[in-house]
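Q: Could you write out the predicted structure for this multi-component system? I'm mainly interested in how the pieces pack against one another.
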Amino acid sequence: MSDHSSSYEPSNGFTRWLDERLPIMRLMHGQFIDFPTPRNLNYLWTFGAILTFCLMVQIITGIILAMHYVPHGMHAWSSVEHIMRDVNWGDLIRYTHAVGASMFFLAAYIHMFRGLYYGSYKSPREILWILGVMIILCMIMTAFMGYSLVWGQMSFWAVTVITNLFTAIPVVGESITQWIWGGYSVGDPTLNRLLSLHYLFPFIIAALVGLHIWALHVVGSNNPVGVEAKTPKDSVSFFPFYVIKDGFAVIVFALLFAWFVFYAPNYLGHSDNFNEANPLQTPPHIVPEWYFLPFYAILRAIPDKLLGVIAMVAAICVLFVIPWLDTSKVRSTSYRPLYKPFFWLFVITCLALGYLGAKAPEGYYLLASQLFTAYYFIHFLVVMPLIGMIETPKQLPDSIAEDVLEDTSEAEKA
Amino acid sequence: MNLSFTAPFKTSKLSIAVLVVSSLFVSPLVFAAGGGDAPEIKRQEWSFSGFFGRYDKAQLQRGFGVYNEVCSSCHGLKLLSYRNLAEKGGPEFSKEQALAIAKEATVIDGVDDEGEPLERPGKLSDRFVPPFKNEAAARSVNNGAYPPDLSVMAKARTFHRHVPWYTEPYYWLYDITTGYEEKGVDYLYALLMGYKTAPRGVVLNDGMSYNTVFPGHQIAMAAPLSEDAVEYADGTPTTLDQHARDVSAFLAWTAEPHLNARKDMGKRVLLYLVILALLLYLAKRSVWSRVKH
């Protein structure tokens, strides 16, 4: 894919001069204009563009917020209110950043479920998938650190709860936790390093996104059928076909985004974060933002602190190895009748864990979290390897063109 | 032939969609189920709620009156400046009125030649002067309780509906599509209206009042409002309900001072995005009509 020749023709003296010294225009032309892309991609494939949009929104709004934010325990919370009140359009910049985090995760989760359904992690896309898991890991850390900067009650206690998890590490846990805090409790030094890292991580994410796109352009996009594009008939050029489709999808996504920013900016947040951080008063319920709830449910489902932490980390890290856990040669779940219901059971499991993460871990709620946590891991560790071995998949079409054009005579004509 | 077969299917799909969407706008009281010991807090009608919501200037002015004459003796508004009272999208007092309000406050600013703190009347640029010097001073005259600052109180409180778990996704959708951002305001209103005589068998601690809405039902603040507590210049009836509504609306504004401007811009942004989406969709269709897919 990446070795396809770029049809770039420098059009004037300057671009010819540039092309001989730094063929960046040639590279961009080859990768984002000519780039052959499967002709049968559905709208689930637009989330790559949507996520790029989200990252850009977060970085731009974040840089502006950092111009006005004060990383000090006494001033952080009021400096956020200062942004909301006294900075020109500061409320919109901050709401866009806060809602933007939610939108970023919404898009990332859809992107991941799409990858899971269509087997986009399978050979030759393992590195592409692993880079994606690294991105979501960085996103989780960035979002967590960003939320803490508000320095409201929920921010402060979320930092306290999560950093305290490190004390579960045997022998050195206590020392590591104090090293992270920069003191004997969450305080000013903690807040300052959270800001420093929160500002750094998006650029690490941007670099990983660069690698992610590079890896994608080496092997090419997967597609709903899961059969590799072989002939030119299977593909269309990225421009104009996918530029216009991605552009349309980004704007539709922006509509949802704008609805939240302008008409429900605090809906996805928590009211307790409008109370300034108070180390002496624990809130009645400490709940993370919605996008962390499934992991929070897994953490609390296990009564042992250390095992709970291990399970929570494993819930994400298991994704690194699924290219090798899934034994099926067929990529698309549409052609896997036996696996399909298990896939949807997994989706329900994730949604249920999200619901349960917001509830007190007691009674039926606890029992349900434990059952769903069990299935979360069973799905990857048992269902994925086993079904691939025993399943008889449906007959795959020979090519994307054959599938799209339905009969081969038409495929030959096209 | 083919068409006549598919048409009824499509309409039925459409009508289901219409039913689902329209049911979102039907009052969700159908599902309201009694639960536990906390009473149901009801969603109120506010001039500033929803897509077309805007603050009612007159209501905010009345609400400021209630705050100024009743609440401000114990509760501060430390995030607000006096100038905010004259700004667009708020109570919109005149500059002179706002200055008169500011001048009633005494601000400690700088020191004299002997190093003693200097006092002067407030200016428009001053933050609201808090009612107590510090927390200890506040607690000493309030039976040990600390009256919280009210600047963002309307966003710092919320309530949970007591509904069966399987109806919760319905409420999420309902709240999002109707832009329900006033849970905290509804809580404040319910709290101010929630003072009742304690039911038989409930023993109140010294100095505490019974409130149906407050968690634990024992609240250190005595019922602050009553009928005719504050005079209204605009002739609005001075009922307890009206006082509670007006001051809750005022606190909604102090918590979200730029709501009017935000919602105005939102309409323009959404309109722009809808038109752009439409154009892009047409362009996309035209581009893709060149190939079968």
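A: Regarding packing and overall arrangement: Chain A touches chain B through 40 residues (CB under 8 Å).
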